[in-house]
């Protein structure tokens, strides 16, 4: 793995940011609908947690496709910027969230000293993303007003969402990507 960024890396990162900015916008619409549906049940905070993993996918995808230091943070930050520029009603706050999400994933690759690009750093990254983002949003979203059972429930749902989207889905995408790369190379 070269530590130098190529033009191809930068273009790919830009494409991922553009693509995931759109995914994040779509997740925002799903969030509004899910939050409205859960509000009468008193479970509106779970809307954010159920969908949270969708908002974190740019970081592990960037880290896997561009195996360079910082690619996860940059990928998530640029996708958050794209979401903001698309007109997200979450506004510029998505940049702060994107930083914590990207940093959490980056810590997963850092834990393997940037030598592994498989499921293990994705798992570490899912844990890092969940812990860092939940710590930030604990204060931002006022989770401290909830009882300990609710806080733990929100944390567990977030972890499951980040694990599903950031580990399971990203691994499936990477398997498909690698299969296509092999087929292309065989021709």
From TrEMBL:
TM stretches of this protein: 12-34, 46-66, 78-100, 120-139, 151-174
Record's keyword terms, sorted: Membrane, Transmembrane, Transmembrane helix
Pfam family membership, one: ABC_cobalt
Domain of life assignment: Bacteria
Record-linked InterPro entries: ABC_thiamin-permease_prd
Protein name: ECF transporter S component
Species of provenance: Candidatus Vagococcus giribetii
Taxonomic lineage of the native organism: Bacteria, Bacillati, Bacillota, Bacilli, Lactobacillales
């Amino acid at each position: 793995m070269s530590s130098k960024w190529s033009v191809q890396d930068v273009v790919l990162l830009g494409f991922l940011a553009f693509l995931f900015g759109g995914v994040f916008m779509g997740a925002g619409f799903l969030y509004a609908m899910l939050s409205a549906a859960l509000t009468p049940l008193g479970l509106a905070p779970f809307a954010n947690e159920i969908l949270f993993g969708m908002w974190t996918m740019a970081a592990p995808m960037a880290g896997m496709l561009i195996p360079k230091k910082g690619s996860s943070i940059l990928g998530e930050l640029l996708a958050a910027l794209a979401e903001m520029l698309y007109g997200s009603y979450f506004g510029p706050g998505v940049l702060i969230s994107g930083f914590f999400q990207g940093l959490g994933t980056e810590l997963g690759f850092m834990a393997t000293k940037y030598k592994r690009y498989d499921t293990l750093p994705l798992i570490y990254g899912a844990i890092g993303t969940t812990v860092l983002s939940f710590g930030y949003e604990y204060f931002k979203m006022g989770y401290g007003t909830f009882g300990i059972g609710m806080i733990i429930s929100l944390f567990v749902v977030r972890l499951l969402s980040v694990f599903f989207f950031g580990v399971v889905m990203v691994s499936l995408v990477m398997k498909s990507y690698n299969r296509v790369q092999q087929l292309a190379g065989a021709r």
